[in-house]
């Protein structure tokens, strides 16, 4: 639901929920404070990047941008002049409850052609946090998405475009080929510049940028930029070295991706009372009511195209407590033909003491990203904990060394 609330009212509501210091030092991360000289001088691909243009006869909507429609009365989107980084206007999103987990965000979608394929794109935006509990984020995505491309071309919504293309939802040929999200969880900040960068593989025709909140509090955004530049060479991948950041969940959790269907009471959070090693683990549970069984958990994305043709090993320690569901690890490889994944390994439910679970997979030819998941199927009562996650490159893929057929994605619908 796109809702607007006067800034003073939003701040008053948030103040009752977020007891954060009034004066905190500006946040700073190495990822968010610099950008390449090439990106800095490239053309900004976004329309209305400073949110200066509004929509006629609309009290708060910024032209060329969209907002996530959750239908919840606890989220407020706004555009105002109270605080702005540059120009006169900035936008914000405020949320007052996470009982139903959702990623509330501002977004802009661009249809692109071959001129963008084979390049890197960098999305940057200035952010300001106020009473943040949980995490906010910026995100850039690259898809081959015929339905969205034609919806934009025909100026209709996605469902109407799918109907014109005579496709059902199960036949939608969407393929995810690029992804980089930066979470940030500092409760109070001044304006901070943050950026994310991805490689744009062949066949990509849609880019999406998002800036939003997954938690309680208010975040403001201004002066967004999306620029293209020559692709950087992928970084070398060391053998038998853990590629997972914060593998023991000792940090803020900002290095992890969170996947949570909007089921009431679903919780995924750091736990310092139960752990396999170190001082914490990540606990999952709740979400006991939902229309269908869905995956919930956390993952990390290894967006490095040199991972193609490698043998990978994912391992993690799991503990279950009265879990009436199944917990397991999973690896997905994103290719031009869709996601490739091996059968699910051992699954854990009911009451299980700390146990290590392991799976090995080959990254097929043309792999652009690998997703390393620890998760469970919900809705399900009970609790589970994950700790000490590891993703390693063991060496060359078996299909290369042994001459066996490489793993393949299921056939996709017509593009």
Low-pLDDT stretches: 1-40
Briefly note the CATH topology name of the largest domain. Answer: Jelly Rolls
The residue fraction in helices comes out at under 10%
* Tally of helical runs: 5
Whole-number average pLDDT?
Answer: 89
Rg (C-alpha, Å): 22 Å
Task: Write a concise synopsis of the structure shown.
The protein is mainly beta and about 425 residues long. The chain folds into two domains: about 5-230, Sandwich (Jelly Rolls), CATH 2.60.120; about 255-400, Jelly Rolls (Sandwich).
Give the topology, please.
Elements (H helix, E strand, L loop, with lengths): L6 H11 L19 H5 L24 E2 L7 E6 L9 E6 L8 E8 L7 E26 L1 H9 L3 H7 L10 E10 L7 E8 L6 E25 L26 E3 L7 E5 L9 E5 L8 E9 L7 E26 L2 E3 L7 E15 L4 E12 L4 E14 L1 H4 L14
Antiparallel strand pairs: 1-4, 2-3, 3-8, 4-8, 5-6, 5-7, 5-8, 9-12, 10-11, 11-17, 12-16, 13-14, 13-15, 13-16, 13-17
Description:
The protein is mainly β and 415 residues long. The chain has two domains: 7-230, Jelly Rolls (Sandwich), CATH 2.60.120.260; 257-401, Galactose-binding domain-like (Jelly Rolls). It is built from five helices and 17 strands. The strands form two sheets. Strands 9, 10, 11, 12, 13, 14, 15, 16 and 17 form a nine-stranded antiparallel beta sheet that branches. Strands 1, 2, 3, 4, 5, 6, 7 and 8 form an eight-stranded antiparallel beta sheet that branches. The longest helix has 11 residues, at 7-17. The radius of gyration is 22 Å and the shape is globular. The two termini are 32 Å apart.
